[in-house]
Design a protein that fits this description.
Layout (H helix, E strand, L loop, with lengths): L7 E3 L5 H12 L4 E5 L5 H4 L6 E3 L8 H15 L3 E3 L4 H7 L15 H7 L2 H10 L7 E2 L1 H6 L6 E5 L9 E5 L1 H14 L9 E4 L4 E10 L2 E13 L7 E6 L3 H14 L3 E10 L4 E8 L6 H6 L4 H9 L3 H10 L7 E3 L1 H13 L17 E2 L7 H18 L12
Parallel strand pairs: 1-2, 1-4, 2-3, 14-15
Antiparallel strand pairs: 5-8, 6-7, 6-8, 9-10, 9-12, 10-11, 11-14, 12-13
Length: about 400
Amino acid sequence: MKSKESDVLLTYGWVRSTYSALRNLTKHNVKVIVSDSNKYGMCQKSKLSSGFELYHDPFIDSESKFISDLSDIIEKNRIKVLFPSHDETEIIAKHRERLPSDVAIPIADYKQLSFANNKLLTTDFAAGLGINVPQRFSLNELMRDKAETRDYVIKLLRGNSAKGVFYAHGTQQAIDLLDQLRVKFKLAQERLPLVQERVSGEGWGVSCLYWHGERIAHFTHKRLREKTSTGGTSTLRQAVSNPILEEMAFSILDALRWHGLAMVEFKYDEKSKNGWFIEINPRMWGSISLAISSGVEFPYLTYLCALGQGEQAKRIVHQSRIKQGTIARWYLGDLIIFVDRIAHRNLAHSLSLILPGNEDVYDDFFPDDLQAFFGEIMFYLDKFRKTHSFNPTEGANIG
């Protein structure tokens, strides 16, 4: 059988960040194959892709089978650029030598990614650069802390979005929660969660594309609404420049000599103008559609860099103007919040979650490709059927 030829292979095809990359790349006539371990999802149902390929789930089956599948898909479709999207990014970096040598993979190496995914290491790294971080407590310091009214954030060292993040009020509740997490996730002493004081402020993100330590593009947004009340994935956000946070993010990524995409997350108090580093998201991020809609086409810029056309990418950035103030909305995320509020008989302001608002663009709802939106719904319904949750915690991704 004659092999096909495509420009890009996207992994983790169900999620909206991958779909955003698919839309952005195909807009520039890039031929894209998408892949996933699940037959349901946005890219799976989209009319924009040039094909769909299944692979073994690296978190359920094995990393070896996943990598072997990817290698076969790359060779069969003569892929030029392998573009990971989510938690599989670190696995791909770990096994880079097992994949065809002629495929470009625009991500950091395994050591960098492993470091950036560790909340404790990156917090200490940022603090070492003189960047504000929330006050940290060791277990011994926590047991000596007498501030019974203090609020704590307790984070598993690995996790994404709100998964692996917990909250406690008062010292004893924090100690009890730490012990519960240690038992539940079978954590060794060196893997105990990071405990920090909970700081006030709104969630912000500074997203960047670096290429071998050189910053190519950046974009900043403010979270306006989040899927879980305690933080995590945003369902509504706005493009807003913030020089204070941007300088912090640049300092961290410059010092790491970063390579590829990353979003640095912060809490920011607009009254005091104080910002705190929270974590690094060292891959494509869920809200990437806002950056693209605002004029920073991260997927296409990354694709150009991967093909050795970094100078063209820089020219595009130089000639582009970021549309500050743009608001993007994740519609299905708002529907999930709506269902949760109805289930808890909290009807206040619920209608605003299903009606049009002041958003300029959507992450997932496009009239020219409605089947992608229904593919997203199918994925979440399938997850709910299996886990009875719209935000399940997958053990392989945290801990």
